Amino acid sequence: MSRTLPNPKTRRRAAGWKLPSDPTKPELPYRRGTSLSIRAHIPPPPFGFGYLKEAALRRIAHWTDLDGMTQTEWCSQHPIIDTPPHPDKTIRYLHLLEEVACRDGRGAQVLKCSMDGSDDNTKYIAKIYDPLYYAYVGSGDDATWKADQDYDSEAAAYEEFKRAGVDGSLAPKYYGSWTFDMVHPETPKATRSVRMILMEWIPVSVTMGHLLDQGARHRMSPQHRLDILAKAMEVFSKMEFYGVRQLDFAPRNVLLIGSHIETSVPRVMIFDFGISAVFSQPTCNEVEFKSKLPISPRYLFWANFPGGFYEWLPHSHRLWRQILLGWMKSHWENTTEFGGPPALLDSEIAKVRTRIWFATPTDDERWTP
Protein backbone atom coordinates (compact mmCIF):
# COMPACT_ATOMS: atom_id res chain seq x y z
CA MET A 1 0.00 0.00 0.00
CA SER A 2 1.52 3.31 -1.08
CA ARG A 3 1.74 6.19 1.33
CA THR A 4 1.72 9.92 0.44
CA LEU A 5 4.84 11.67 1.70
CA PRO A 6 4.30 14.96 3.53
CA ASN A 7 5.04 18.14 1.60
CA PRO A 8 8.04 19.83 3.31
CA LYS A 9 6.64 23.25 2.32
CA THR A 10 3.67 22.70 4.66
CA ARG A 11 5.87 21.85 7.65
CA ARG A 12 5.68 24.44 10.40
CA ARG A 13 8.77 25.91 11.99
CA ALA A 14 9.41 24.65 15.48
CA ALA A 15 9.33 27.18 18.31
CA GLY A 16 12.70 28.86 18.62
CA TRP A 17 13.76 27.81 15.09
CA LYS A 18 16.42 29.93 13.52
CA LEU A 19 19.13 29.67 10.93
CA PRO A 20 22.73 28.93 11.91
CA SER A 21 25.17 31.65 12.94
CA ASP A 22 27.62 32.85 10.32
CA PRO A 23 31.22 33.07 11.62
CA THR A 24 32.66 33.94 8.17
CA LYS A 25 30.34 36.89 7.63
CA PRO A 26 32.21 40.23 7.90
CA GLU A 27 31.03 43.08 10.10
CA LEU A 28 28.80 45.61 8.34
CA PRO A 29 31.27 47.49 6.07
CA TYR A 30 29.10 50.53 5.31
CA ARG A 31 30.50 52.98 7.81
CA ARG A 32 31.73 56.57 7.80
CA GLY A 33 35.11 56.81 6.05
CA THR A 34 34.55 53.90 3.65
CA SER A 35 35.03 54.55 -0.08
CA LEU A 36 33.44 52.51 -2.86
CA SER A 37 34.32 52.15 -6.56
CA ILE A 38 30.95 52.32 -8.30
CA ARG A 39 29.71 51.90 -11.90
CA ALA A 40 26.39 52.77 -13.54
CA HIS A 41 23.95 49.84 -13.61
CA ILE A 42 20.82 48.84 -15.54
CA PRO A 43 18.25 47.51 -13.04
CA PRO A 44 16.19 44.41 -13.88
CA PRO A 45 12.41 44.88 -14.34
CA PRO A 46 10.55 45.31 -11.04
CA PHE A 47 8.68 42.47 -9.32
CA GLY A 48 7.07 41.63 -5.99
CA PHE A 49 4.25 43.66 -4.42
CA GLY A 50 2.23 45.40 -7.11
CA TYR A 51 3.35 43.08 -9.91
CA LEU A 52 2.20 39.78 -11.37
CA LYS A 53 3.70 36.69 -9.79
CA GLU A 54 5.47 35.75 -13.02
CA ALA A 55 7.38 39.05 -12.98
CA ALA A 56 9.90 37.50 -10.56
CA LEU A 57 12.78 35.74 -12.32
CA ARG A 58 12.75 33.11 -9.59
CA ARG A 59 10.30 32.18 -6.84
CA ILE A 60 10.92 33.39 -3.32
CA ALA A 61 12.47 30.64 -1.23
CA HIS A 62 10.49 28.84 1.47
CA TRP A 63 12.10 28.64 4.90
CA THR A 64 12.73 24.93 4.34
CA ASP A 65 14.98 25.85 1.39
CA LEU A 66 17.16 27.92 3.72
CA ASP A 67 17.18 25.44 6.60
CA GLY A 68 20.74 24.74 7.78
CA MET A 69 22.40 27.35 5.51
CA THR A 70 24.28 30.40 6.75
CA GLN A 71 23.51 33.78 5.20
CA THR A 72 26.91 33.79 3.49
CA GLU A 73 26.21 30.37 1.95
CA TRP A 74 22.75 31.41 0.80
CA CYS A 75 23.96 34.65 -0.82
CA SER A 76 26.83 32.78 -2.50
CA GLN A 77 24.61 30.07 -3.97
CA HIS A 78 21.72 32.44 -4.83
CA PRO A 79 23.33 35.67 -6.11
CA ILE A 80 21.38 38.79 -7.02
CA ILE A 81 19.98 39.17 -10.54
CA ASP A 82 22.51 40.00 -13.24
CA THR A 83 21.80 42.30 -16.19
CA PRO A 84 23.72 43.34 -19.32
CA PRO A 85 26.50 45.85 -18.57
CA HIS A 86 25.71 49.54 -18.69
CA PRO A 87 27.22 51.30 -21.74
CA ASP A 88 28.89 53.83 -19.43
CA LYS A 89 31.79 51.89 -17.91
CA THR A 90 33.26 54.88 -16.05
CA ILE A 91 34.37 54.06 -12.50
CA ARG A 92 33.48 56.68 -9.90
CA TYR A 93 34.53 56.89 -6.28
CA LEU A 94 31.88 57.28 -3.60
CA HIS A 95 32.85 58.38 -0.09
CA LEU A 96 30.55 57.50 2.82
CA LEU A 97 30.28 60.49 5.16
CA GLU A 98 27.55 59.68 7.66
CA GLU A 99 25.39 56.72 8.62
CA VAL A 100 21.71 57.65 8.35
CA ALA A 101 20.15 54.20 8.88
CA CYS A 102 22.70 51.40 9.10
CA ARG A 103 22.37 48.12 10.94
CA ASP A 104 22.96 44.48 10.12
CA GLY A 105 19.55 42.94 9.49
CA ARG A 106 17.61 46.16 8.71
CA GLY A 107 17.50 45.68 4.93
CA ALA A 108 18.84 48.51 2.75
CA GLN A 109 21.60 50.61 4.31
CA VAL A 110 21.21 54.40 4.02
CA LEU A 111 24.19 56.79 4.17
CA LYS A 112 25.08 60.37 3.35
CA CYS A 113 27.93 60.50 0.84
CA SER A 114 29.93 62.50 -1.71
CA MET A 115 31.35 61.50 -5.07
CA ASP A 116 34.58 62.34 -6.89
CA GLY A 117 34.05 64.43 -10.00
CA SER A 118 31.04 66.32 -8.67
CA ASP A 119 30.77 69.73 -7.05
CA ASP A 120 32.50 69.69 -3.65
CA ASN A 121 29.30 70.90 -2.03
CA THR A 122 27.09 68.21 -3.58
CA LYS A 123 26.01 65.54 -1.12
CA TYR A 124 23.92 62.49 -1.84
CA ILE A 125 22.00 59.78 -0.07
CA ALA A 126 23.14 56.27 -0.98
CA LYS A 127 20.70 53.40 -0.49
CA ILE A 128 22.62 50.11 -0.59
CA TYR A 129 20.79 46.82 -1.14
CA ASP A 130 23.27 44.26 0.15
CA PRO A 131 21.52 40.92 0.86
CA LEU A 132 24.33 39.85 3.20
CA TYR A 133 23.01 42.44 5.68
CA TYR A 134 19.28 41.88 5.26
CA ALA A 135 17.28 40.06 7.96
CA TYR A 136 18.00 36.34 7.83
CA VAL A 137 18.94 34.33 10.94
CA GLY A 138 15.79 34.83 12.98
CA SER A 139 13.39 35.51 10.13
CA GLY A 140 14.22 32.89 7.53
CA ASP A 141 13.83 35.49 4.78
CA ASP A 142 15.16 34.94 1.26
CA ALA A 143 17.65 37.81 1.54
CA THR A 144 18.75 38.00 -2.11
CA TRP A 145 15.15 37.88 -3.40
CA LYS A 146 14.19 40.71 -1.05
CA ALA A 147 17.26 42.82 -1.91
CA ASP A 148 16.53 42.42 -5.62
CA GLN A 149 12.86 43.25 -5.12
CA ASP A 150 13.62 46.40 -3.11
CA TYR A 151 16.21 47.65 -5.61
CA ASP A 152 14.29 46.83 -8.80
CA SER A 153 11.01 48.35 -7.53
CA GLU A 154 12.63 51.49 -6.18
CA ALA A 155 14.75 52.12 -9.27
CA ALA A 156 11.71 51.62 -11.52
CA ALA A 157 9.71 54.21 -9.55
CA TYR A 158 12.46 56.84 -9.66
CA GLU A 159 13.07 56.20 -13.37
CA GLU A 160 9.34 56.75 -14.01
CA PHE A 161 9.39 60.10 -12.20
CA LYS A 162 12.39 61.09 -14.30
CA ARG A 163 10.60 60.15 -17.55
CA ALA A 164 7.55 62.13 -16.43
CA GLY A 165 9.64 65.24 -15.78
CA VAL A 166 8.79 65.44 -12.05
CA ASP A 167 12.12 64.15 -10.74
CA GLY A 168 12.94 65.99 -7.52
CA SER A 169 9.51 67.57 -7.01
CA LEU A 170 7.39 64.78 -5.52
CA ALA A 171 10.25 62.56 -4.32
CA PRO A 172 13.95 63.28 -3.74
CA LYS A 173 15.93 63.86 -6.94
CA TYR A 174 17.31 60.63 -8.38
CA TYR A 175 20.95 60.27 -9.41
CA GLY A 176 20.84 56.84 -10.96
CA SER A 177 21.34 53.16 -10.21
CA TRP A 178 24.78 51.79 -9.47
CA THR A 179 26.72 48.63 -8.75
CA PHE A 180 29.96 47.89 -6.95
CA ASP A 181 31.96 44.84 -5.91
CA MET A 182 32.67 43.59 -2.41
CA VAL A 183 35.10 40.86 -1.38
CA HIS A 184 33.41 37.49 -1.08
CA PRO A 185 33.54 36.29 2.57
CA GLU A 186 34.23 32.64 1.70
CA THR A 187 36.54 33.25 -1.26
CA PRO A 188 38.74 36.31 -0.64
CA LYS A 189 40.00 36.40 -4.23
CA ALA A 190 36.44 36.50 -5.56
CA THR A 191 33.96 39.39 -5.45
CA ARG A 192 30.21 39.73 -5.22
CA SER A 193 28.07 42.47 -6.74
CA VAL A 194 25.99 44.88 -4.67
CA ARG A 195 23.36 47.31 -6.03
CA MET A 196 22.68 50.88 -4.97
CA ILE A 197 20.73 54.00 -5.91
CA LEU A 198 21.74 57.61 -5.30
CA MET A 199 19.32 60.39 -4.32
CA GLU A 200 19.69 63.99 -3.31
CA TRP A 201 20.51 64.73 0.29
CA ILE A 202 17.97 67.14 1.76
CA PRO A 203 19.56 68.78 4.82
CA VAL A 204 16.69 70.44 6.69
CA SER A 205 14.11 67.67 6.76
CA VAL A 206 12.39 65.16 9.02
CA THR A 207 9.83 62.39 8.52
CA MET A 208 6.30 62.52 9.87
CA GLY A 209 7.07 59.21 11.54
CA HIS A 210 9.98 60.72 13.47
CA LEU A 211 7.80 63.61 14.65
CA LEU A 212 5.20 61.12 15.88
CA ASP A 213 7.87 59.10 17.70
CA GLN A 214 9.16 62.28 19.37
CA GLY A 215 5.70 63.40 20.44
CA ALA A 216 5.93 66.51 18.27
CA ARG A 217 2.27 66.33 17.27
CA HIS A 218 1.41 67.60 20.76
CA ARG A 219 3.38 70.77 19.99
CA MET A 220 1.54 71.37 16.71
CA SER A 221 -1.99 72.68 16.43
CA PRO A 222 -4.65 70.21 15.18
CA GLN A 223 -5.35 72.37 12.12
CA HIS A 224 -1.65 72.60 11.26
CA ARG A 225 -1.34 68.80 11.33
CA LEU A 226 -4.33 68.49 9.02
CA ASP A 227 -2.75 71.00 6.59
CA ILE A 228 0.47 68.96 6.48
CA LEU A 229 -1.45 65.70 6.04
CA ALA A 230 -3.39 67.27 3.15
CA LYS A 231 -0.08 68.10 1.42
CA ALA A 232 1.11 64.50 1.81
CA MET A 233 -2.16 63.16 0.40
CA GLU A 234 -1.84 65.53 -2.56
CA VAL A 235 1.71 64.35 -3.30
CA PHE A 236 0.46 60.74 -3.22
CA SER A 237 -2.28 61.63 -5.73
CA LYS A 238 0.16 63.40 -8.06
CA MET A 239 2.51 60.39 -7.95
CA GLU A 240 -0.34 58.18 -9.13
CA PHE A 241 -1.10 60.67 -11.90
CA TYR A 242 2.52 60.46 -13.07
CA GLY A 243 2.52 56.68 -13.06
CA VAL A 244 3.64 55.39 -9.64
CA ARG A 245 1.53 53.98 -6.82
CA GLN A 246 3.24 54.03 -3.43
CA LEU A 247 1.99 50.87 -1.73
CA ASP A 248 3.54 51.71 1.64
CA PHE A 249 2.07 55.16 2.26
CA ALA A 250 2.84 55.76 5.94
CA PRO A 251 4.26 58.58 8.13
CA ARG A 252 7.76 57.02 8.11
CA ASN A 253 7.87 57.52 4.32
CA VAL A 254 6.70 61.14 4.26
CA LEU A 255 9.47 63.75 4.33
CA LEU A 256 8.78 67.27 5.61
CA ILE A 257 11.24 69.91 4.43
CA GLY A 258 11.84 73.25 6.10
CA SER A 259 13.17 74.86 9.26
CA HIS A 260 9.86 75.87 10.87
CA ILE A 261 7.78 72.72 10.39
CA GLU A 262 5.89 73.09 13.66
CA THR A 263 4.54 76.53 12.75
CA SER A 264 4.38 76.72 8.92
CA VAL A 265 3.33 74.19 6.30
CA PRO A 266 6.51 72.62 4.90
CA ARG A 267 7.36 71.26 1.50
CA VAL A 268 6.35 67.58 1.40
CA MET A 269 7.87 64.60 -0.43
CA ILE A 270 7.26 60.86 -0.33
CA PHE A 271 10.13 58.38 -0.52
CA ASP A 272 10.92 54.64 -0.17
CA PHE A 273 9.48 52.80 -3.16
CA GLY A 274 10.57 49.26 -2.30
CA ILE A 275 6.85 48.47 -2.18
CA SER A 276 5.35 50.30 -5.13
CA ALA A 277 3.94 49.78 -8.61
CA VAL A 278 4.77 51.50 -11.91
CA PHE A 279 1.72 51.41 -14.17
CA SER A 280 3.73 51.43 -17.42
CA GLN A 281 5.46 48.15 -16.53
CA PRO A 282 3.87 45.26 -18.50
CA THR A 283 3.70 43.07 -15.38
CA CYS A 284 2.07 45.72 -13.16
CA ASN A 285 -0.85 44.21 -11.24
CA GLU A 286 -2.36 47.46 -9.96
CA VAL A 287 -5.36 49.18 -11.58
CA GLU A 288 -4.49 52.61 -12.95
CA PHE A 289 -7.09 55.37 -12.65
CA LYS A 290 -6.97 57.30 -15.93
CA SER A 291 -7.77 60.99 -15.52
CA LYS A 292 -7.00 64.40 -17.01
CA LEU A 293 -5.97 65.77 -13.61
CA PRO A 294 -4.62 64.13 -10.47
CA ILE A 295 -7.56 62.61 -8.59
CA SER A 296 -8.69 64.59 -5.59
CA PRO A 297 -7.45 62.97 -2.35
CA ARG A 298 -11.04 63.31 -1.17
CA TYR A 299 -11.96 60.49 -3.54
CA LEU A 300 -8.76 58.47 -3.38
CA PHE A 301 -8.99 58.14 0.41
CA TRP A 302 -12.75 58.35 0.95
CA ALA A 303 -13.21 54.59 1.37
CA ASN A 304 -9.63 53.66 2.32
CA PHE A 305 -7.95 56.15 4.63
CA PRO A 306 -4.39 54.89 5.38
CA GLY A 307 -4.38 53.64 8.96
CA GLY A 308 -0.78 54.66 9.63
CA PHE A 309 -1.86 58.33 9.75
CA TYR A 310 -4.51 57.97 12.46
CA GLU A 311 -2.06 59.00 15.19
CA TRP A 312 -1.35 62.20 13.24
CA LEU A 313 -5.02 63.19 13.16
CA PRO A 314 -6.63 65.47 15.73
CA HIS A 315 -8.57 63.59 18.41
CA SER A 316 -11.88 64.74 16.91
CA HIS A 317 -11.06 63.38 13.44
CA ARG A 318 -9.48 60.19 14.74
CA LEU A 319 -12.50 59.36 16.90
CA TRP A 320 -15.30 60.18 14.45
CA ARG A 321 -15.03 59.02 10.83
CA GLN A 322 -17.91 61.31 9.89
CA ILE A 323 -15.75 64.29 10.87
CA LEU A 324 -12.71 62.96 8.97
CA LEU A 325 -14.85 62.62 5.83
CA GLY A 326 -16.30 66.08 6.42
CA TRP A 327 -12.78 67.53 6.52
CA MET A 328 -11.80 65.80 3.27
CA LYS A 329 -14.97 67.04 1.55
CA SER A 330 -14.55 70.66 2.68
CA HIS A 331 -10.79 70.79 2.03
CA TRP A 332 -10.98 69.69 -1.62
CA GLU A 333 -14.57 70.56 -2.54
CA ASN A 334 -13.69 73.58 -4.70
CA THR A 335 -10.24 72.52 -5.93
CA THR A 336 -9.24 73.17 -9.53
CA GLU A 337 -5.86 71.43 -9.16
CA PHE A 338 -7.43 67.98 -8.72
CA GLY A 339 -10.17 66.15 -10.60
CA GLY A 340 -13.24 64.11 -9.73
CA PRO A 341 -13.45 60.38 -9.10
CA PRO A 342 -12.89 57.95 -11.98
CA ALA A 343 -15.62 55.40 -12.67
CA LEU A 344 -13.48 52.65 -11.16
CA LEU A 345 -13.69 54.36 -7.75
CA ASP A 346 -17.43 55.07 -7.84
CA SER A 347 -18.45 51.71 -6.39
CA GLU A 348 -16.00 51.98 -3.47
CA ILE A 349 -17.14 55.52 -2.67
CA ALA A 350 -20.79 54.46 -2.85
CA LYS A 351 -20.20 51.80 -0.18
CA VAL A 352 -19.38 54.49 2.39
CA ARG A 353 -22.86 55.19 3.67
CA THR A 354 -22.50 57.54 6.58
CA ARG A 355 -23.45 61.05 7.48
CA ILE A 356 -20.82 63.76 7.11
CA TRP A 357 -20.08 66.11 9.98
CA PHE A 358 -18.07 69.30 9.99
CA ALA A 359 -16.18 70.30 13.11
CA THR A 360 -13.26 72.45 14.21
CA PRO A 361 -10.31 70.08 14.80
CA THR A 362 -9.44 69.56 18.45
CA ASP A 363 -7.21 67.36 20.60
CA ASP A 364 -9.44 67.78 23.65
CA GLU A 365 -10.33 64.20 24.58
CA ARG A 366 -13.38 65.43 26.51
CA TRP A 367 -14.85 66.87 23.33
CA THR A 368 -17.92 65.24 21.74
CA PRO A 369 -19.81 66.33 18.61
Automatic annotation (TrEMBL):
Protein name: Protein kinase domain-containing protein
Superkingdom per UniProt: Eukaryota
Annotated stretches, region: Disordered: 1-29
Species whose genome carries this gene: Ceratocystis fimbriata CBS 114723
InterPro entries: Kinase-like_dom_sf
